[in-house]
Amino acid sequence: MQVTARERLDRLRAREWALQIHYRWESAGAEGSFRDALGDTMRTRRIAPGRLPYLRRVLGVLDEHLAEVDHALGLSLENWRLDRLSSIDRAVLRIAATEMLYLDEIPPKVSIQEGIRLAEQYGGHDSPRFVNGVLDALYKRRSGPRV
Predict the structure, then answer these.
(1) Nearest 5°: phi and psi at 4?
(2) In terms of CB atoms within 10 Å, which of 2, 28, 55, 102 comes out highest?
(3) Which residues lie closer than 8 Å to 118 by C-beta, 6 or more apart?
(4) Who contacts 68 (Cβ-Cβ below 8 Å, separation ≥6)?
(5) Which of 103, 27, 28, 118 is nearest to 64 (CA)?
């Protein structure tokens, strides 16, 4: 199925919202769900209606599979632990890994590229290279038996 330019833009912006909501969730002590953090965000911010379906889907899958996503990322991190990463890098990795592991309609290389883009835009100086390395390792691991 061909994705329109509007749908690509909405997904791109939904990923940015997912990053902000993840940051809000973590800043509040990682209590409750990502859906709760989305609800809190929507009380004070306006999210374009076209972005909400994908945003809800990513956050919902992340709510359901956070432990599995973290486990898969942990296997792809060399000499790092997920809890030692910056909140932004951790959020970018979780969002991209969620897409790679659970959203089959998103090509993994698109998820990797979008993760790198988010890291360039919101992360630190070394974030894009780091995110690329971790997601590439996850992709290679995923290409074998399902994680």
Answers:
(1) -80, 165
(2) 55
(3) 15, 16, 19, 92, 95, 96, 131
(4) 101, 147
(5) 103
pLDDT value for 39: 93
Q: What is the DSSP string of 18-86?
A: HHHHHHHHHHTTS-S-HHHHHHHHHHHS---GGGHHHHHHHHHHHHHHHHHHHHHHHHH-SS--GGGS-
pLDDT single digits (tens) 54-73: 999 999 999 999 999 999 99
Q: Which domains does the chain have, with CATH numbers?
A: 5-143 (1.10.940.10)
pLDDT digits (tens, 9 = 90+) for 7-22: 888 899 999 999 999 9
| Interatomic CA distance for residues 111 and 59, integer angstroms | 15
The mean pLDDT value of the chain amounts to: 92
pTM of the predicted structure, to 2 decimals: 0.91
Report how far residue 69's alpha carbon sits from residue 80's, in angstroms, rounded to the nearest whole number. 16
CA atoms of 111 and 15, how far apart (whole Å) = 10
